[in-house]
Amino acid sequence: MYGRAQKIIYAVFVIAVIILGWSLDNEYYLQLLIFIGLNTLLALSLNMLMGYAGQISLGHAAFYGIGAYVTAILTTTYNVEPILALPAAVGAAMIVAWIVGIPTLRLSGYYLGMGTLGFGMIIHILFREWSSVTGGASGFVGIPPLEIGPLIFDSRRSYFFLVWGVVLLSIIMCRRIIDSRVGRALRSIHDGEKAAAAIGVDTKKLKVQVFVLSAAMAAMAGFLYAHLIYFISPGTFNFVASIRIVTMVVIGGMASIWGALFGASLLTLLPEWLHAFSEFEMVVYGLILMSVMIFLPRGLTRGVIDIYYRYRKSHDK
Amino acid sequence: MQEILQYLFSGLTNGAIYAVIAVGFSMLYSSTDLINFAHGEFVMLGALGMVSLTAGFGLPLIPAFFLTVAGVAAAGMLFERLAIRPVRHPEPIVLIIITVGASIFLRGAGMLIWGKNSYSMPPFSDHPPIDFAGARLLAQSIWILVIVTVVTAALHLFYRRTLTGKAMTACAVSKKAAWIVGIPTKWMVLLAFGLSTGMGAVAGAIISPITMPSYDMGTMLGLKGFCAAMFGGLGSLWGAILGGFLLGILEALGVGFVSSGLKDAAAFILLLLVLYVRPQGILGSADVKRF
Amino acid sequence: MIPAKKFRNTVLAAAVLLAASLILSPAIFADSHKDAYKIGGIFSVTGPASFLGDPEKKSMNLAIEQINEAGGVDGHMLEGVIYDTEGDPSKTVMAAGKLINKDRVTAIAGPSRTPTTLAVIPMVKRAKLPFVSCAAGNKIVEPVKPWVFKTAQSDIQAVASIYQHIQKRNIRKVGIITVSNAFGESGKEQLLSQASDFGIKVVSSQSFGADDKDMTAQLTKIRRQDPGAIICWGTNPGPAVVAKNVDQLGIDIPLYQSHGVASPKFIELAGEAAEGIFLPTGKILVAEQLPESDPQKQVLLDYIKAYENKYNETVSGFGGYAYDAIHLLAKAMEGTGGDKAQIRENLENIKGHVGVSGVFSFSKTDHNGLDPSAFVMVRIRNGKWELVE
User: Fold this and answer.
1) Nearest C-alpha of chain C: how many angstroms from A137?
2) How many domains does chain A have?
3) Domain range holding A181?
């Protein structure tokens, strides 16, 4: 029954994407949805690490950036086909994650936060200072559109389908991992690392593995971002960006795949709605962020369910 | 020799700024187990409040200083009462996002009040830079050094010698146990917030003559202060000061001997190495908590 | 494992949220003015470059008001739609997408910074829309892109005027200190590449972070190489800190700043340390001191008066970029009926337009349209700008 429900959800998801993709004529809305898709990928990737394994990262934008810069450099400077640059971009992020993850994931709590933050800063500075390769602070121009065989993704509509296809595949992949033995082991780390180790979970290895997976997904988002905008600059991958990803995960609801989707949607759409406030935008944005966390500390998805249950309870009596 | 001394002085100036901010982080952590990501914004409030009171309202330095600190501490307590206490399940990550939200809110409010420009603030005393074997240090840096040391020593005594201070430490160790033995834990948290944000205001006020404050100064300062607090060992006051100075001096030496573009990276790499070797920071205690 | 019921409810909650977010979307409220020409503006009104974006937004509104008061363009009123980029490329792309596809503007002015400009260039190219950037970076118009123009003076001219001045004073060695963002980087590139043309050698090149509070370490390193002058490239407050630090260290050689600090704010921030500093700037700072024969003088005085009356604040050198952009666009729109290709064509053929930032003469190979005469050298004396010959 559980499996069937899941299949129905995926079917609804696919249909929704197809309908939106065909019916929306305004490129602005397509673009908005593409950004939501990219942010969902980022939130999903961090959610695997933070929501399920309980390991915080305040430097996740670094992997996003590595994905974007590797493909930019390969496709533009070295004329590599984008389809070949993809494994390189994702692979580079995975290797970096593996090297950094081994010592960093030994830390915990705020110190882990600090370790990942420092790593994110170093990568950001690297993007900015290594200007002969990365284009420096002014950014990297002239990234080609994405071509896979005969398919050219140069319109917003085609990109919309590409991004949401990737999102769907990622959701299915995450779901599978979470429901597997590995997923249970992961959650055991979240609930009590020592207890998990005591019952035979190789916590160190598992943490690094999920870190690498998370980095790979973020790099995928970076790859898609670079070929969407055709331009990247270090500012997109700084500390603030990392914090924004963390916020998406927490606001949406940790340890919830759909939570990642809502967190990402809300934080992408919110600034668009808040334009009307002009000078007051920041104040309102900060207030909303605080209120959501004060009143729905488990995130929007869970929060709405909690309210629903409370409502049912009070009416059933 | 004169150069190395100048690098040290340069590091001392930046380091003093980081240190005084790190103390605020560390002291809040030591009594509530919480990192306030809006701390940088309270520093901003302190700095701009100081500018407004002295330049705008023409108050003399000392009353302006105490008024600013009291005002910002009150704002910090209000923040605790309105945004931190109502949280039903105070998990660290939830509190972190609330403080991130608060930092955005305060930055927005700062922009509305003070506009987008930087301000200038005269130094506390009109001394020319102090010459020491050809290297020069601003008089204001000495002011910062002295005030930081005095305030930290006072805090240290407060924690070790007074009943309230000891009660606050007890709350940090175990809120429940502290409550059982009759400590009003809610008041302690409120007080800790007041002290910590007040400390932020002290930081903002004394660094305002060298930092040219503006509404968005808090982010970077908060980040550096957080790093310094981590470096020295979270929860340790003297660790925070040590961390701040080390970070500042490392950056200055990074400029001198590596490259000015990579100075931040050099500092962060060293920071990571320290964390790898000694995960609890230089002066931190060994029990490090999970999220 | 999550119970099936709970799982279903999660999905339900999700669906409700998604539906709510789509319904709330402000799309429904779009309106259409048939008569007005819509011009989009994207400026970093808040964020680290707000010192550029804020006066630019105000100047754009001012220019539109002036044009409309004078009867608009061929009887069409102008309507400005301005969004804030916060200096962030992703937000700028969103804003540009909104202007192009939702507000359906005829032309776009801004963004304020080089990276944000570079980020939207592919979009305006695809949308075939006249685009006038207000950013300084030379990468924007080099190589020339058909739809892309810019009004801010290039670093090339600013560096050239500084080096000319240094050459005249017979200084052969300089040390440079630049901010580590797009503005500083672009300045550094020009400083390094043009030095040999003037027989000057850059003996030390340092950088500082936009938020740094003390640059004595960098200056100490520069001093060791014994240069004859120091050139600082950045935007407030960094350069003011550099000026103060130079004073503090007692470095007794001329200090040059870039046009990035060309606002009264710099003098206020640097205080006494600002005395004797040289910088290249658009003529706006010394409008009063210009000879009567200068064609820009009247335009500048009018702009300053209008701006200060409307906003009750001192004018800076930056708002003029947007002011010029709007006036150039309005001029190019005359007789086109709003046809974008025609506007672009007209823009490219504008010659001798007297603006705030200089006299613009565009051509097929020059989409900035300014020559070195757009800059003058000024010196700060007694807290005032003083025109240097």
Assistant:
1) 5
2) 1
3) 2-316
